[in-house]
UniProtKB/TrEMBL annotation, chain A:
Protein name: Galactonate dehydratase
PANTHER family: ALTRONATE DEHYDRATASE, ALTRONATE/GALACTARATE DEHYDRATASE
One Pfam family this sequence matches: GD_AH_C
UniProt domain D-galactarate/Altronate dehydratase second: residue ranges: 5-132
Keyword S-adenosyl-L-methionine belongs to the record: no
Signal sequence, start to end: none
GO MF entry, a single one: lyase activity
Keyword Lyase attributed: yes
Family to which the UniProt record says this protein belongs: Belongs to the UxaA family.
A Gene Ontology BP annotation from the UniProt entry: D-galacturonate catabolic process
Residue ranges of domain D-galactarate/Altronate dehydratase C-terminal in the record: 142-378
Keyword terms: Lyase
InterPro entries named in the record: GD_AH_C (IPR048332), GD_AH_second (IPR007392), UxaA_altronate/galactarate_dh (IPR052172)
Length: 387, 108
C-alpha cells in the first residue's frame, strides 16, 4: 500500500509541506504571527511557554519545539527568538538543521525590535517558501506513516461508535507496518488494567500503571474533587457519568493490538513500529502538540459533541459518533460514524471509509479544519509552575 | 442487527452491564424503550424518568454502594438505591477515582 508523500533528505516522509514559523517563547508570538499572516505556505506554532519555568519544563519546551520542527510535514523552519528566553534556541536551531531541511533563526532584540524582526522574518520565510514549494510528491510505502489518535468533546456515542471506528483503523494501520500513537493518560484512569494486559512485557505494563498513577496523583495533589474537571461539563451533558466511564470508552480507539511501549511527552518516533502510548493529558492544545511532535503525519480525532479544532502542521480527521452532531456540525466533521448508532452501517464499513479518507488526506486532500484554518489553539504540556 | 427506528432504542454494550444507553430524543417517565444487546437480543424496559439522548438507564435494581457496570467494567458506584428503568447519571452514580476529597482514600 502506497501514498504520495514528500520525501525529506533524512528519509522521513511528510503528508504536508509547510514552512513552520516557531516562536521559541511566548514573547515572540506576535512577530511570528505577523510573518505567518503575510507569507503563504507558512504555519505558526503559537504557544505560551519558554521562559520563567523550571529546568525540566524548559527542556521539555525545547524538545517539543525540536519535535515540531523536525516533523516530516515541515519542509523548512524559521525560529523566532526574543533573545533572552529560557528555551535553548541554539539547540533548537542545531537539532532541526541536522534533519537537512532549511532552518533559520531571527532574534527580535538583536534586530532592533518587533517591526524590524517582522520584516526580517517575512524575507526569510518568503525565501523558504519559494524553496520548498517546488518539492514534488513521490510514491512511498504507507509503513512510513505515524498515525496519532485522540478523542475530544466526547459523549456516549464516542465509546460506542466513533472510537470503535478509530480502533478498527488503528489495528489496520499497525498491520500495515505503521506506527500508531495514542495518549490521554487522564483517560486511562479506571481502564489501566485493560491496557496493561495488552502490554508486550510486564515492564511496559508497569510503565502504564506508573503514568496513570502520576496523573491521578497530580489531580489529587490539589486536594479537591477531580470531578469538576473530568469528565468535563460537556461530557456530563453528553451522558458520561464518571472518569471511569469516559476512560473505558476512550481506550476503545486504541484498537486491539499489543502495546509496544510508553513514550514521554516530547519524544519523537524514530524507529518505533506498532502501537505506542504517549503520556499526554486529554486537552486538545497540549495533546495535539505532543502528537505532532511525535512526527505523526496526521491524526484521527473521534468526537461526539463536536470538536472543530486541528493543528497547524498535522491534518486532523474528525470522526463523529453522534448522528445529530454530524448533521449540525457538518462543516467540521469529516466522517459520520453516527450511522453505526442508527444501525445503518457497521463499524467495519465506516472503518474502511475512514481508511480511504486517511489515504486521501496523506495524498494531500485537506481535512475540514485545514480548509478553514481552524488550528491555532496549540500549547505545550508542562509539569511545573510558571515562576 | 435490524433496528426499527420508530422504537425508542437503548443499547447494552456488554453481557455484564447493569445499565444501557438510550439513543432516542425526548424520553420521559412512562415511555418504553427497546433495549438491544450485541447478540441481537432485545427487551422492553419501562423508563421511570426523563432521560436525555445518550444517557443511561438501569437494567435491574441496583442498591446503594453497588457497582455500576458498563463495557463489562465498573464505571462507579450507586449513591442511592436505583430501580430498574431509573435514569442513571451523576445524581446517583459516583466515580471512585482521581479524587482528593475522599477521606481515607488510598494513594498508591
Amino acid at each position: 500500500m502506497k501514498f504520495m508523500g514528500y520525501v525529506r533528505s533524512n528519509g522521513k516522509v511528510g503528508s504536508r509541506n509547510h514552512v513552520a514559523v516557531i516562536p521559541s517563547v511566548i514573547c515572540a508570538n506576535d512577530v511570528a504571527q505577523a510573518v505567518v499572516g503575510q507569507v503563504q505556505g507558512t504555519v505558526g506554532f503559537f504557544h505560551h511557554q519558554g521562559c520563567c519555568q523550571l529546568p525540566p519544563d524548559l527542556e521539555r519546551v525545547t524538545d517539543t519545539l525540536i519535535g515540531l520542527g523536525c516533523s516530516s510535514n515541515v519542509g523548512a523552519a524559521l525560529i523566532v527568538s526574543l533573545g533572552c528566553e529560557g528555551t535553548d534556541h541554539e539547540r533548537l536551531l542545531e537539532t532541526i538543521a541536522k534533519t537537512g531541511k532549511p532552518v533559520e533563526i531571527i532574534r527580535i532584540q538583536e534586530l532592533g525590535g518587533a517591526s524590524r524582526a517582522i520584516q526580517a522574518g517575512i524575507d526569510a520565510a518568503q525565501k523558504m517558501v519559494l524553496k520548498v514549494s517546488g518539492i514534488q510528491r513521490e510514491p512511498v510505502n504507507i509503513s512510513n506513516v505515524t498515525m496519532s489518535i485522540k478523542c475530544g468533546a466526547s459523549d456516549t456515542t464516542s465509546g460506542m461508535a466513533s472510537n470503535c471506528v478509530v480502533g478498527y483503523l488503528a489495528d489496520k494501520m499497525v498491520d500495515l507496518g505503521c506506527t500508531v500513537v495514542f495518549g490521554e493518560t487522564t483517560e486511562f484512569i479506571g481502564a489501566e488494567h485493560i491496557l496493561a494486559k495488552r502490554a508486550v512485557s510486564p515492564e511496559v505494563g508497569e510503565k502504564i500503571y506508573k503514568i496513570v498513577n502520576r496523573m491521578e496523583l497530580r489531580a489529587k495533589s490539589l486536594g479537591c474533587d477531580m470531578r469538576k474537571g473530568q469528565p468535563t461539563p460537556g461530557n456530563i451533558a453528553g451522558g458520561l457519568s464518571s472518569i471511569e466511564e469516559k476512560s473505558l470508552g476512550a481506550i476503545v480507539k486504541s484498537g486491539t493490538r499489543p502495546i509496544q511501549g510508553v513514550m514521554e511527552y516530547s519524544e519523537m518516533v524514530t524507529t518505533q513500529k506498532g502501537l505506542w502510548i504517549k503520556d499526554t493529558p486529554g486537552r486538545e492544545p497540549e495533546i495535539l502538540t505532543g502528537m505532532a511532535c511525535t512526527g505523526a503525519q496526521f491524526m484521527v480525532f473521534s468526537t461526539g459533541r463536536g470538536a472543530p479544532q486541528g493543528f497547524p502542521s498535522m491534518p486532523v480527521i474528525k470522526v463523529c459518533g453522534n448522528p445529530n452532531t454530524f448533521n449540525l456540525m457538518n462543516h467540521d466533521m469529516d466522517l459520520n460514524a453516527g450511522l453505526i448508532i442508527k444501525g445503518e452501517k457497521t463499524i467495519e464499513q465506516v472503518g474502511e471509509e475512514a481508511f480511504q479518507k486517511v489515504i486521501n488526506v496523506l495524498n494531500g486532500e485537506m481535512t475540514k479544519n485545514e480548509a478553514i484554518r481552524y488550528f491555532n489553539s496549540i500549547d505545550i504540556y508542562t509539569m511545573g509552575p510558571v515562576i | 442487527m435490524e433496528i426499527n427506528m420508530n422504537l425508542k432504542l437503548a443499547l447494552k454494550v456488554h453481557d455484564l452491564d447493569n445499565v444501557a444507553t438510550i439513543f432516542a430524543n425526548d424520553v420521559v417517565a412512562g415511555d418504553e424503550v427497546e433495549m438491544h444487546d450485541k447478540k441481537g437480543h432485545s427487551q422492553i424496559i419501562d423508563v421511570l424518568g426523563e432521560v436525555p439522548y445518550g444517557h443511561k438507564i438501569a437494567l435491574q435494581d441496583i442498591l446503594v454502594d453497588e457497582k455500576i457496570i458498563k463495557y463489562g467494567e465498573e464505571i462507579g458506584v450507586a449513591t442511592k438505591d436505583i430501580k430498574k428503568g431509573d435514569y442513571v447519571h451523576v445524581h446517583n452514580l459516583d466515580s471512585t477515582r482521581g479524587r482528593g476529597d475522599l477521606k481515607g482514600e488510598v494513594v498508591l
